[in-house]
Amino acid sequence: MDARISLCMIVKDEAQNIRRCLESVTGAVDEIIVVDTGSTDESCQIAGEYGALVHLFPWNENFSDARNASLELATGDWILFLDADEELAGESKEALRRLTADDNVEGYFVKIINYLGNEGWIETCPDLVFRLFRNRPEYRFRGAIHEQIADVILEKNGKAAYRMAEEIVIIHYGYLDRQISEKDKKNRNLKIIQKELGENPENRLLRFHYGVELFRAERYAEAADELTRAANGIDPNTIYLPKLLRYIVMSHQSAGQPEKALDVARLGLQVFPNYADLYYYCGLLYLELRRYTLAREYFLKAVSMPEQPAQYASFGGVRGFRSYYHLGQISEIFLDYEDALRHYISCLRDNPDFTPALENIVRILKPRENPDYAKECLEKVFEFSTPRANQMMGNIYFRQGAYSLALEYFNRYTGSEPASPEIQLWKAICLIQLRRYLEALRIIESFNSNSHLYPLAMLNKLLCFWVQGKKQKVCSILAELRALGLAEDTDKVLTLFLNSQDKRKNVYRVTLGQDGVALLLDIVKRLLDMNEADRAIYLLNKVNPESMAEYRLTIARLFYDFGFKEKAELLLREYLTANQDGEAHFLLAEICRETGNYIEAAQHYQYALEINPDEPRYYLRQINLYDNWRKKILQEAIEKYPNLEVFIKLSEEAPVN
């Protein structure tokens, strides 16, 4: 005869979760006990729909008391306990029945998959938890929070045998950002655990949980101190020690203490030499410290690690996409784009949804400059056959300023799915950038004043008419926008369009705040993309220099990136008269090199290195400059003295292209 299984739960205001939980155990348990600690929503009614025995229990800030109240009502041979924000994975039902038939086991550790983050980007973290045990009257929970029963069972029954049942899987949604914020879990847990620690200051496990709660509350330095106290003198065989070490590393890192974090991580690797997370965090820390060679070594170690034991609670992707992504970044830092692409492709093969890697691949391929080549390369490696894939690529190309490709992929998407208002507006912007004004205006006219995108649509309509020189239209649209109500900075930027045709130098100057500068720079970027450099310069000249002081290097880079090298050079030289900045010297060196001015290029590369000697790009570009310079001089020498043996020998040692 099969053993009977009782599901025991405590809940409060879990209407949004409890149905999913109870649905997951249908057919897997024989009875459901729900202890409600004060719900004001429909939690109890929903539990009743599934045949649960619902018991009301006044909340006394002690989770063990509530848990034990559910055990008192359970009549099964075994107890399975879940929280409402969890569910039993479908494949676990058969295993649950099979494992509870073993007479030689008193309880099981089972695998739990914690979902972290938010609904836009969810990550997983596996762990082991003690959730299945025999129902005996002497087995009762202990602890006001992070309540324990495994130790209690061993105290009551020294011969009790535990096993791991990784084939039973619980999925936990409670660490999603929305769930945490709605329930204010951080403050609730800290309050309870502080009280418990006051009564049990030597409880190492309780201190570990306290440190974790401090970390979640973003009190990182305090978390590091508490977690270190929990670790000092601990038995190396303690099941949660790997997690404890990782949290100490993360706390020191988040508190801005990278060297301390590295000391703990390296110490942890002596105890757990196959712990991928610690290799990964060493890589992150060395990357943060710009010690790129060591960072690369540790990321490569992380991806070489074997499958991680469940008790390590290893973060998903540390042996895969996370480490490959940072390896790609390091390769880019050393200008090795082929190697970077290889790592980013490995990253996406491990996690096709990790779009930052795809975005970096697209950026390396320079789709704005080489749209056909970028498209061909990407479609050889990836398949964009679904509406979602086409939308994603449209978004990425749009952000990269590759408007023709963005429009193509948005059109692919809208050919099979209804277009959202956002995508419609992005299509209109693409059409404006491609100077297909009539098509753009047809889309913009579809937005009415009730749409939250209407002001942005009207702003693009204004830009569309302005680049065509239609001043009356610009005046009319600006009046309509002002009637809607504009922020002061936005109004100031748009006023520049009215005065842009006044040819008198510096006739009108405005002072902009941060939001105004951001809007202006976005307009300047789009004008440069449309080869409207004169209009961009005119707008910039109408703003007080003080407003733009901290953005001057950004503006110079924009002109450089869009191919207006002469203007970029003027801006950089002006900027460098008042600022000694490594990146500015580097950009000026790049321009000098491209125009054949090798002597000045070498000087600016050297200045960049003196200011920032930790930047590998500066070394690599200077080496490349000297190499090309040498080849150029050697070529000139061979042309002048074609039969001179010394030059022939040098050309054989280093062939001239």
From TrEMBL:
Residues 6-127 form the Glycosyltransferase 2-like domain. Keywords: TPR repeat. This is Glycosyltransferase 2-like domain-containing protein. PROSITE patterns: TPR. TPR repeats lie at residues 276-309, 387-420, 582-615. Pfam families: ANAPC3, Glycos_transf_2, TPR_16. The keyword rRNA processing does not apply. InterPro entries: Glyco_trans_2-like, Nucleotide-diphossugar_trans, TPR-like_helical_dom_sf, TPR_rpt. It comes from Pelotomaculum thermopropionicum (strain DSM 13744 / JCM 10971 / SI). It comes from the Bacteria.
